[in-house]
Amino acid sequence: MALSQSDTAFLEALVPGYTFISRIFLSYLHIDLAAYLQYFVALALFGVSMRYLSEYLTQFFETYLVCTAEMRLDDELFNYLMYWWSRRPNTKRTNHFLAGVRTNGYWGDDDDDSDNADSDDEDEEWSVVDGSTNAESFDDYWTKVINRDKYKKLRFTPAQGRHYFWYQGRLLMLERRYEQSGARWVLNNEKLYLSCLGRDPSILHKLLSDAQHKFVERDGSRTIIYRGQRGSSGSTFDWCRCMSRPPRPLDTVILDNTQKQLFLADIEDYLEKGTAEWYAEHGIPYRRGYLLSGPPGTGKSSLCFAVAGKLGLKIYLLNLSSRALDEDNLYALFSELPRRCILLVEDVDTSEITHSRGQSIFPRSGPSQADNSPSNTDNNSSPDEPGKISPDGKTEKTGITLSSLLNVLDGVAASEGRILVMTTNHPEKLDDALLRAGRVDMQIEFRLAISEDIENLYKSIYSVSKEARVRQSPRRVKQLQNGSEEDGESDDHKPNGVHSRRHELQSRIENLAKEFASLVPSGEFSPAEIQGYLLKHKDHPERAIRDVAEWVKEEREKKRAKKAAEIKAKESQGKKQS
């Protein structure tokens, strides 16, 4: 079939080089491509039609014959499934995976601690068994630890694409997909898709529930701590899990036992069954607030952490002084709080908004305000610190106000069921509106260590816990069991055994604790200061008693010099202002 010149020109436009190729085929192979042109067109049409048909059939199949669950990066369920997948036995045998060593939402530093803790079987050399100590030298032990810490734990997760696996006799598919976004720095474009054949999604529900249980069970009785910070989107705030820690016994918090039990009993009464209904029947918002005040190092945050561990509550940390936190993000954070948790705001007095109503965290460059909060003419505002400038040239607010904080605590739209705990070193600086009943329902004042507290601190440092099976180094065991640090002989081989030796050790520590408490002035030092001193002599209980008088003298001189410097600084500042 011969083509006209116009047809040849048309084919040359559609297929560049057609004329040259046809001449080669005709000259060397004696094949006229024009004779087979209709077959090529039919084949092309068939290919295009099959492409669209396959897409239609695939879409029809996935819509009506497949169940799919979608999980996004900013949801905890994403972490549950990734953790579950990483713990499957065949994960390390797959040929398509993403390897890394970086921690993230489904892995944390505490996960490494549980895998590589010093309490593993290979470190049993430090344990004391039946009164005998079978230990290697410190140099050998530390060399082994350092060599182990050089290598970060390898983490394997499914790579981008589709992964098929069997679960309870059913073939499932996990797809990890990175969707394109206009802003490349946005990390919230990663999604997981879990699919199964059939119209019944129960197998997916069971797998996700199993993944959630596995993720939660890894923590055991540990206290989970979240922190309010920028989310993966980069613009909004979100609660991000930062760590999990073993619960702290309540008796290790140095505070009057009556106050501790009163605080614990009040929280237990608030969480008791039927309390929420009682609040609702009486028209009272179901919220509870506490203010823990006292000098630094007296155990305010420790009490909150200990109570959270005892009751199994999660802790959510909020920093009101964050430069990026605004009113919208503050409301978003409070709206995402679970019903039973502790919201901890540490050192609330350090944020300027808690001092006077309507004052922003950061000074503004202009007098105009965009909200209905009272105007502020505080002289602390500085024109040298400009506010945020909008595109139209107007000054916008930065930070949050006391009014917005009070509204989010007990306003009409405030969340219910959470426990608010605020700590402060200077309660007199706080605005009265923040401390009124309904926002702060109980105040607990912490004190400096008295004689009873000092004695308990000494016991907690040097006593050996029978229940916890605290592991001691052989050197420390000998020093605690002996009457003197310089004496090198121990009573490890006495026939009465390790239990009687522990009893003798406890009795000796109680006597030393009373002697130590008599040498430290009552009500002059914080528990943290005394604990810091004892930690310097953690292996030498008698040396701690012998050197405590000199330590007290040095600390008094330091405090006297610091106070004199503060007075001098205030006087010089007053002269400059005058």
TrEMBL record:
GO cellular component, one term: mitochondrial inner membrane
GO-annotated molecular function: ATP binding; ATP hydrolysis activity
Membrane protein topology class: Single-pass membrane protein
Residue ranges of every copy of the AAA+ ATPase domain listed in the record: 286-451
Region (Disordered): 355-396, 470-504, 553-578
Coiled-coil boundaries: none
Alphabetically ordered keywords of this record: ATP-binding, Hydrolase, Membrane, Mitochondrion, Mitochondrion inner membrane, Nucleotide-binding, Transmembrane, Transmembrane helix
Comp. bias regions, Basic and acidic residues: 385-396
Domain BCS1 N-terminal: 41-253
Composition bias type Low complexity, residue spans: 371-384
Catalytic function, reaction form: ATP + H2O = ADP + phosphate + H(+)
InterPro entries: AAA+_ATPase (IPR003593), AAA_lid_BCS1 (IPR057495), ATPase_AAA_core (IPR003959), ATPase_AAA_CS (IPR003960), BCS1_N (IPR014851), Mitochondrial_chaperone_BCS1 (IPR050747), P-loop_NTPase (IPR027417)
Compartments (UniProt record): Mitochondrion inner membrane
The family this protein is said to belong to: Belongs to the AAA ATPase family. BCS1 subfamily.
This protein's name: Mitochondrial chaperone BCS1-B
